[in-house]
Amino acid sequence: MMAFTRLSGYVRFFHPSDSVVTTNWHLFLANGLRVVESATTPDSLTRALRTLFAGVAPTMRIDRVGTPPHSPVPAAAGNAVAFWAHRGVSLATSVYKEQTLYSSTRVIAASVAAGQPASTLLGKAFPDPNRPERIDLGAGVAAVMPVALRVAMPAVPEARRLAPKTFSSCVSSADDRFTRLAAVAELWMVMEHFYPYWDVVDTDWWATMRSGLLAASRDKSASDFTVTLQRMVATLHDGHGGLSHNARPRPWASYGVVLRVVEGDVMVTRVMDTARTDVRRGDVVLEIDGRPSSTVLAEQTSLESSATPQFAEYLALLNLMWGFPGDTRTVRVRSAESPAAPVRTVTLRAREMTSVRDTPDDVRPEKVAELAPGVLYVHLGKISDAEFVALLPRLQRASGLVFDLRDYPSFDTRLLLPRLSDSTITSARFELPVRSLPGTDAVTFQNSPWILPPIRPRLRAKVAFLTDGRAISYAESTMGIVEAYKLGEIVGEPTAGTNGNINPFMLPGGFRVTWTGLRVRKHDGSQHHGVGIRPTVPSSATKRGVLDGRDEQLEAALAVVRSARRSSP
């Protein structure tokens, strides 16, 4: 089954036949896995694979390892060469139909002269019909597959002649065993060829496929299988990695508390309604539903896809504090004031939020606040474009500015950043993977950074940016510019270490996968994924600070801008 999955990925994404384009791959995978499961020897697997792929890739040869291969199919005569050109990857079940960044196109290019090597026509990435791909499939079987085919130049443009079909994303219910196995295969093949961070992620993806197939074959329900897929996605170590099911709504009710790990303990940092619970700010959570909180947190963290421990911890604690309306959760807590403080058992009840704005979060100032004379605070996760523009006169008069980006920006930060520099600034390297051949050596990257000329008048105040492990993606695009051009002090903790446009798609059984399809590197070309943006002024919460209701990171940022203001001539 692993051999079939590997070969399916090669054929689907790199064999340029008409049948590859028109095949319903969800059905093909489910049927193929059913067939090859009964193959018990290399010979029987070889026969099964030849039968399955005969109609999809007739020019491919499949043989036992160590046996003389069949004579190759004679190359078709033609004045053109067909091959795949992938910019990222575009799937027939892509969630975002309007997505134009990613594309997968079967190209038909005319030969310019008889006998000219095809590999010289379009550069190094141009596949040669005379150089097929040799694939060791495991299980004692190997394949030889052409990645380019000689064809006749079509009279009708390719896009009109053979448009890729859009198929149903759900073969059947995930309660069906082979639907589950097909979902594992689909997830594995897409990531194997197109996940852009394999060079920096320490994951044995082949072993992940084995464990995924084994678990999927034993799962008893769609609910069990959801956990199997979550574990697979988690091994990507991708902060954008996520899984949802079209028949399984995400919990949208809060237990009314915010949890953080503070000085090694799970701690309550905010209570939404103290009148409805005996939990208090500053309580240390010892147990959750009868089990040690450290154990529960570790188990939940193992299901979270994250490039950094801080973002995985944030996601795990967030998910532990969400449920469905009416759900209950029992916690045992004691005050952090003293280890001898009495332990209390409290039952929390999940209550539905009326909107995303009601989501429990840390207590912060109003989205625009004057922290001290001449020092303005702006919460970049709450302010709108129009509000920012209206605020500009006050920002220009300020002597100190604290911008809070400990979450995701709610406005276009390109309205702010060019006002902090006298020269043109650019974003980090946004690199789109481009390939026509399998293998890490065959991929090239096209860089398309933001280019931001300065906007006058410049904001001249001393600036500090607040950030931490919750800041991801667009927040890191912003903070990466701050870091590279030293536009202000960075106060707090490292960011989530994940950036790049997502590329969601659907798996058999109705599962939606999100992942990062674009590679981002720092301005100097160094690694961003799993590293993130590091603070220039490290600051973290303490138990004493939580008990006192203080925002110690905000206090550190305020000290930075006030100290610089006092020492300036």
Verbal overview:
- By secondary structure, this protein is an alpha+beta fold.
- It has four domains: 2-161, no CATH class; 177-245; 253-352, Pdz3 Domain, CATH 2.30.42.10; 368-567, 2-enoyl-CoA Hydratase, Chain A, domain 1 (Alpha-Beta Complex), CATH 3.90.226.10.
- It has 14 helices and 29 strands.
- Strands 2, 3, 6, 21, 22 and 28 form a six-stranded antiparallel beta sheet that branches. A six-stranded mixed beta sheet has the order 17-18-19-24-25-29, sandwiched between helices. It has a four-stranded antiparallel beta sheet with strand order 12-11-14-15.
- Strand 11 and strand 12 form a beta hairpin.
- Helix 1 (2-14) packs across helix 6 and helix 6 (177-194) packs antiparallel against helix 7 (205-218).
- The radius of gyration is 27 Å and the shape is globular.
- Mean pLDDT is 88; it is low at 112-125, 163-171 and 565-569.
